[in-house]
Amino acid sequence: MTRLSIEPFSRPFKRVFSPPGSKSLTNRAMVLAALSQGTCRLQGALFADDTRVMIEGLRRLGFDVQTDESNAQIIVTGRGGVIPSRQTEIFCGNSGTTIRFLTALCTLGKGQYLLDGVERMRQRPIGPLVSMLRNLGARIESVMNEGYPPVRVQGDGLPGGIVQYGSEMSSQYLSAVLQVSPYARHELRVNLVGKQTSWPYVEMTMRMMDQFGHWCELERDPQTREPVRIIVPRGEYRLEEYQVEPDASNATYFLALSAIHPGAEVTIHGLGKRSLQGDVGFSGVLKQMGANVVLNDHQVTIHGPTQLEGVDVDLSDMPDTAQTLAVVAMFARGPTTIRGLHTLRVKETDRLSALEQELSKLGAEVEVQEDTLVINPPEKIHPADIDTYDDHRMAMSFGLVGTRAWGVRINDPGCVNKTYPGYFKDLESFRD
How many domains would you assign to the chain? Predict the structure, then answer.
């Protein structure tokens, strides 16, 4: 196993920075482009494990996907809702967006499609998506264990219609169906039941659909303003060029880096009030902890305070920031309570268990109560080798600890290739 030692920064830094393109936006944009009529050029696209399996998956489905990594471009030739291939097998690695989005896409085809991934993927549920697509008339089966990959889709077009959707473990199930629904045979109506998981990601999907030329209607409860129904009429996508924003989830590591170093400052260009990505809201959590935050339309600046304070916060709308906040909590005064973490059990690893184990190594007192994590930081952080569980977010978040405390080593740092291959190089560049 490879290990990466990280030495503490010797002085504050001041940087203007933009991380690579968003994984969530890149993979959504590729699917929407493939469904479009004509050629679409994605600018600022991310090239990482999760997007590479999406590129290969679309190619196996018969789409023309050209790449230019040096210029961060992906060019997709869409087929207007037609799936060229009639039979193929698609390997999705451990990319949840890839297997969920392509499963829905395959229902539009005319033929048989098998989708699988690594062993961990076979432990990540896909049942709610399968049930939703079945209720809309698709023919899908779980090949091994019901509700889990691998799945086989017998494509014959998606009939569409009315379906009910509850508060599931991942918003990607709903996003997957919404993206393909303009090409169903009948209008889609989704009745939403209960508080929705990671709702900002669903809003992101709908805003992207609008950018690609197809509008869908969202109805809200007049009293609570909670979403209750989504209506997607039949139609088509068409767009010649799409600009991918920097990845807001990956930007949180550099916002946090500035927050935990008194006197440090970072400005992230390309992310702000007008961003499609809900994880931009993480800057507000850092503000609650005492960081100085300036949020404009297209950039956010964080200035590290003399002392951070623990917070009690619900991250159900941005669960991918939980590990970042858990690490920031190690440098705060008093306990930090993070709520709304039910989805963390079914990510790349069981992130709640992983956080409990690795924060404890560093000397924190950690308590897990169902979907809540309580962190009492130590007086002094202990040296430790941090296990990453083949989870990119464990490696990226705990790497921040080493910039302030001696003796921190990251096991298997290469797992960041999933979404951010150059992460540790970029982190090191902040060392003035």
Answer: 2
